[in-house]
Design goal:
With about 700 residues, the chain is mainly β. The relative contact order is 0.08. The radius of gyration is 32 Å and the shape is globular. A hairpin with a 2-residue loop joins β51 (about 645-650) and β52. The longest helix has 17 residues, at about 1-20.
């Protein structure tokens, strides 16, 4: 392709020096496209030339995009991939029969024969180009003609990327068994059962981000939304509406979560058309395939209900944009109703919703048979800033109120003092929170009974002056809201003051006792190697920080013995037992009969963490010792003892499977990945994603990797 571009550039220079018969200008239509899109439609490219009237010209016209072209052009098979060249200098545009040829990112139209109009104008327009989205998307044009044609400026902007989707997601708190499935699959039947609801409110990132079905046209060439629920109780069924009317409909679909009563919505054809979404039956987990169950037509109440696909603890449903108003930003509410088995235990389970633009893909470029459009799996930001309702009372809002004074006076060496706070949700839906202690003076004199949850009511804590000398001590109990649908987690600080006075008279002297080994103290648990506060995994490594650690120190996790890998005066490296159960488990360090206070840690079956990144020769991967593109890196990873095969390794924007191999030490596994040969020299990131028992997918924090030039 470089040689072809060079030839075309030489031709431009030659015609310029020979004296131009036609003077050409280039213009582009900068289209707004969606971030993360792998096949976004960019704006038209127009070439307008002025010269001699009614003159016939034979030429080759090439358009070079700076991003990867996504049109599946097959020159040999006669498939233009949706790209058309128009002669636009007549009374009406005329499509030319010349099929494009794709070479890299260069779209070439060869053997064009066209004549200028009576005014000497000769105008071409290229439409239908698709490319991977970027902040700024530009195209360059080259001309090789039988008649001299001068093009002073050959680069134009044809696209700019912006977020295409915002969403506010309300999770479901499935606290109890049931309810049973409704007798009729419609809104009335569903709501009569009182199922556990989750809700996704979706909003366009910009007007026209939701592209509707074009009739006539391919039925799947439109924006789709993939909605997933994670964390369902085993055996659950999930029902969803068959169709959704947007906020600009005669009667929008209302989930009941945003200050209005539930309503199925009403579709009424109009101009401009309101937003209409249809459930896609038999869609794949990526959002591809299947067929819409509702097509625009006569006015109708959208009361019918279908069923989402459920696999293990995850459900998904796909919606396709059938109609939309390109002139305004539109929004829609999509409820998901959970029916858990009526025979299960009454145990609280949080099912979390997520929404993505679909179909999902990691295949950029002209991939034959790949969906158009398609998108990378990217996080979606909340939409409450768009609608200005981030402070609305239907969102959860944490409130903590002391039941008594938080200033206490206790005797040194005395017993514990019980105290209470009231935790409540001042808003709607349900609240999630966690609590911790921040000491301003002294240490260890407050005990929290519970460090988080979903419940409202009395919260118990204790003050212990036993080991405190007389004086004044201050601390803060910090309550932090979690998983707020708006992304704005409130924090409430309760100041606590303890004044310790002289204790009772000293006891008579006792016979000297041999000094006992001091009890270990454990005050922090962190991941290896990063100092992050979990989660941790069965069979994985963990860093415990504290004091009074010794070679004979033993550690238990959830009552099970753990392997102590390394001992330092203030730090232990410990391998968690493979049988450690999921959830908050106590960690206790002991020296003989002396043991630490329990420290609760969050344990998952799998939680990968990259410990080291090495080159194939065993040297550490650094800026001065990079891995060459096309060569192998070796990751030492912890937290993968129970992970399914294969693990998935991501470098920059590339994924590859990797099989676990024996690692360099206890709790470690080695993963190998070959750096793609086309990646440039750069510093980028590598991460590892795995699945395991009850964990669908979890990824490590990214670690840096340096890539050098290919040898």
């Amino acid at each position: 392709m470089k040689r072809l571009v060079a030839v075309l550039g030489t031709a431009i220079l030659f015609t310029s020096l020979a004296g131009a018969t036609f003077l050409c200008t280039l213009s582009g239509t900068p289209a707004l496209v969606t971030q993360g899109g792998l096949a976004e439609p960019v704006g038209d490219v127009a070439l307008q030339c002025a010269g001699t009237a009614n003159q016939t010209v034979q030429l080759t016209l090439s358009v070079l995009l700076e991003q990867r072209v996504a049109n599946p052009i097959d020159f040999a098979g006669g498939d233009n991939g949706g790209v058309t060249l128009w002669l636009d200098s007549g009374t009406t545009p005329v499509p030319l029969p010349n099929k494009p040829r794709l070479v890299g990112n260069l779209v070439i139209f060869e053997n064009i024969v066209a004549s200028s109009n009576p005014f000497g104008l000769l105008t071409f327009r290229v439409t239908g180009l698709r490319a991977e989205a970027a902040e700024t998307m530009a195209a360059s044009v080259q001309i090789l003609a039988s008649t001299p044609m001068l093009l002073p400026g050959n680069r134009v902007v044809v696209g700019r990327a912006a977020p295409g989707l915002f969403a506010t997601l309300m999770p479901a708190a499935v606290c109890c068994a049931g309810p049973p499935l409704p007798a009729s699959f419609d809104w009335d039947g569903v709501l009569a059962r009182g199922p556990w609801p989750a809700v996704a409110r979706v909003t366009e990132g910009y007007a026209s981000a939701f592209q509707p079905v074009q009739i006539p046209g391919p039925p799947d060439r439109a924006t789709r939304l993939l909605i997933r629920l994670n964390g369902l109780p085993p055996g659950s069924r999930v029902l969803v509406p068959d169709a959704i009317a947007g906020n600009n409909a005669l009667q929008p679909t209302s989930s009941g979560a945003f200050g209005t009563d539930p309503d199925p919505g009403f579709y009424n054809p109009s101009s401009p058309p309101p937003l209409l979404l249809s459930r896609v039956a038999q869609a794949e987990e990526t959002g591809a395939g299947g067929f819409p169950v509702l097509w625009p037509g006569s006015p109708a109440a959208l009361t019918s209900v279908g069923e989402a696909v459920v696999v293990d603890d995850q459900a998904w449903a796909v919606y396709q944009v059938m109609e939309a108003d390109a002139g305004r930003v539109e929004s829609a509410e999509i409820p998901l109703w959970i029916f858990s088995p009526t025979t299960r235990d009454n145990q609280l389970v949080i099912a979390r919703a997520e929404v993505k633009l679909a179909p999902l893909s990691d295949e950029p470029g002209p991939v034959a048979g790949a969906p158009l459009p398609r998108y990378r799996d990217a996080e979606v930001s909340p939409d409450c800033d768009v609608w200005g309702d981030c402070e609305a009372d239907y969102f959860p809002l944490l409130q903590v109120t002391p039941s008594q004074t938080t200033e206490f006076v206790l005797q040194s060496g005395g017993g514990v003092k019980d105290a209470y706070l009231f935790v409540r949700n001042q808003g709607g839906w349900f609240i999630e929170w966690e609590a911790s202690v921040r000491y301003l003076s002294g240490d260890g004199w407050i005990r929290l009974w519970g460090i988080g949850g979903y419940s409202e009511g009395s919260y118990h804590y204790q003050l212990n002056p036993k080991d405190l000398p007389p004086g004044e001590y201050r601390a803060e109990i910090v309550f932090h809201q979690k998983n707020a649908p708006t992304g704005r987690n409130s924090e409430i600080v309760i100041p606590v003051k303890l004044t310790v006075t002289e204790g009772p008279p000293p006891q008579p002297p006792q016979p000297p006792q041999p000094p006992a080994a001091p009890a270990p103290r454990v005050w922090a648990a962190m991941t290896v190697p990063f100092a992050l506060q979990g989660p941790f995994s069965s069979g994985g490594l963990i860093r415990l920080q504290g004091m009074f650690f010794a070679e004979e120190t033993v550690v238990t996790v959830g009552g099970l013995p753990a392997q102590v890998v390394s001992v330092q005066p203030g730090e232990l490296i410990v391998r968690l037992p493979d049988a450690a159960e999921r959830g908050w488990q106590p960690v206790i360090a002991a020296n003989g009969g002396q043991q630490s206070e329990p420290l609760l840690i969050d344990v998952l079956p799998v939680a990968p963490s990259i410990v080291t990144v090495a080159n194939a020769d065993g040297s550490g991967n650094t800026e001065t010792s990079p891995v060459a593109a096309g060569e192998e890196i070796v990751l030492q990873v912890t937290g993968t003892a129970l992970a399914d095969e294969p693990a998935w390794v991501n470098v920059h924007d590339r994924w590859a499977p990797a099989q676990k191999q024996a690692g360099a030490g206890p709790g470690l596994h080695a993963l190998r990945m070959t750096i793609p040969g086309d990646l440039p020299a750069m510093m980028t990131a590598v991460k590892v994603c795995v699945s395991g028992p009850t964990v669908d997918s979890i990824c490590s924090h990214p670690a840096p990797v340096w890539i050098g030039n290919r040898q």
